[in-house]
Amino acid sequence: MRANYNQIAGQSVERLTALSDGVFAVAMTLLVLDLRTPAETAIHGERDLWNAIVLLAPRILVYLMSFLTLGIFWVGQQTQLNHFAHCDRHITGIHLIFLFCISLMPFSTSLMAAFISYRLALLIYWANIFILGATLFAGWRYAMHAQLVKKELSADFAAAIEQRIIVAQTLYAVGALLCLVSTYWSIGFILLVQVNYAIAPRSGPLSRL
Amino acid sequence: MRANYNQIAGQSVERLTALSDGVFAVAMTLLVLDLRTPAETAIHGERDLWNAIVLLAPRILVYLMSFLTLGIFWVGQQTQLNHFAHCDRHITGIHLIFLFCISLMPFSTSLMAAFISYRLALLIYWANIFILGATLFAGWRYAMHAQLVKKELSADFAAAIEQRIIVAQTLYAVGALLCLVSTYWSIGFILLVQVNYAIAPRSGPLSRL
Amino acid sequence: MRANYNQIAGQSVERLTALSDGVFAVAMTLLVLDLRTPAETAIHGERDLWNAIVLLAPRILVYLMSFLTLGIFWVGQQTQLNHFAHCDRHITGIHLIFLFCISLMPFSTSLMAAFISYRLALLIYWANIFILGATLFAGWRYAMHAQLVKKELSADFAAAIEQRIIVAQTLYAVGALLCLVSTYWSIGFILLVQVNYAIAPRSGPLSRL
Amino acid sequence: MRANYNQIAGQSVERLTALSDGVFAVAMTLLVLDLRTPAETAIHGERDLWNAIVLLAPRILVYLMSFLTLGIFWVGQQTQLNHFAHCDRHITGIHLIFLFCISLMPFSTSLMAAFISYRLALLIYWANIFILGATLFAGWRYAMHAQLVKKELSADFAAAIEQRIIVAQTLYAVGALLCLVSTYWSIGFILLVQVNYAIAPRSGPLSRL
Asked: Is this prediction's ipTM beyond 0.90?
């Protein structure tokens, strides 16, 4: 019986990790690429430049939110990958789709930055975050099922990973729903969630979200 | 007799792997860079934005196809590199040409996305995939011939790698030929092949392609 | 008691290092992306091309300055990360914010390159450098406080890291103040500081800055 | 006596290698970013698209030449770094300047691609290659002088590295001089040199260049 390519391909956790770090690094740095300097012809003095910069300020908040979002998903993916004993091609496939959605984030972000008061832009942004969470969840479930994770992993640990995704996605969904009031409320709420996850309090009710 | 630079240069498999991961990560993330937000002046309400996004939808499928293509070739190259005991400058040269063709993928992809009904755009896209397969095949043959691969590698394994490239390239060629009917048939067929390779069934006839 | 996700996430120094290297590499290479070739329609001979290139020359100095700035902060961050025994999510959060500010450098740089005689452009550039120093300082203080650094680290070493940030930031602030005379003085002064830090003398008063 | 920051900073060969791989990967992939798809409004049929692609063909040769150039310098730098026992801040500074010049290559390349018959564009391209060789040479000399290289390195090996840089730079200078005849001769000659270095013959006179 011949060797089956599918049994020997895509087994390196290390390689998947390196590719993921690369895709995240590029996506994070490209976010801001959209932040263009004002046209030189439109600026005739320090005051004009000041006004142009002030107009860019809300965009920078949006970029910060997306950067933190990417950072949080990077932590989430790495936490999973760090506990994989090995890979197979299915988990590689799932993570490739996850990375594809990561590569869409600069687009979703610049769409929301350009159309900050449009609900559709906000919902597309949220849909992007939702798919990221869903693929990460599916990847973890598959990895548990296919016994790709390290043997010493406790059931508690595995449950904590699933729970975190569910809690976070619930909060994002609440944020998205707030666009019924105003997209600014949505953005403010999601930004607060991200700041909480990135630099969270060490104790109190939020520390266990 | 003096030391020969060519005998000491380009011998690190690890370095070639790291460079390759980097080129893949950048190319994968740049694919979507072409996905521009609609001009703000053309959008006067949620409905306009919805229409603009709907127009972008087929492009996203093309990007997904290219992302999966890059992912599959990344798996293919890494499967080879993981089994190299060492490198020499010829294999480094072959893989540099492979990486050059990887860096052309965002161009081929955006050409096809822009001219989705043109056979020429589809054939250029296919030619890009074909050269990728050909350099990977040549690299493997050279590595076997120059005994760069690890000693414990079975002949079965080596044959499986060659066979996979040949089967995949045959399927891509069939996809390209379908452009005689319509370029949409070609794209649909190639997309199905890629989805099969990325997240393939675990058993049944397709599992051994 | 359930496992707490926050205690298991973001603990790999190696991953944070890899992501940081990636963000720095992309930001460094994107700096120059703004350096556009002259429009072909405006060039009718070697002389026109020469004039167009001469006009780009001051920009190249600005890019070199920013490249060295990124390089110096890369050395500064790596010097810290190399001495971390492990990470926690707070230090990961602080470094994500640091990396966000790194990703803003191509924007600050291209703003200053386009508006080289505007004080506001210079002050924004300086503010970017200041936040980088401040987050790096905060990260180090937190790491010492939370005992993330390796045990064998001497108090001298820890003090040297803090002192370097303070001295460098003082010099940058002096450079920024020089814009009261002229922004060119500021740029010249900061460029000298960066060249000193990048390829500093091995002895003499400057060697201990 | 206080610890001197300069003695503890920038000592990791591994980190410098990772940053370099990243800068090279981004620069290599950005080269081709300049290769734009034809404007959709100008294309009315397969024939128009064919003509537009034919016009792009010489550019692709220029990109291939630059990709190989970057690949060859990557091999050259890695060959040096692989034999470093440790780094100091001066060698890090020299390599940062080397990487800055690498990040200029996409600009030099796109300048030459746009003004392929202009001697000035060719000379700027050559100057970029020359500075790369000069910094690599200076870095090696400094590393030997400061005893950063591994102890087991033979004098033969060290001489081979210097000799390679000198021979290659002589060939590039000959190529640049050929622009007195025609820039196309220069490009053709340099392309042949690069192909020789990338996939060189295993014996015969060229194998020892």
From this structure: no
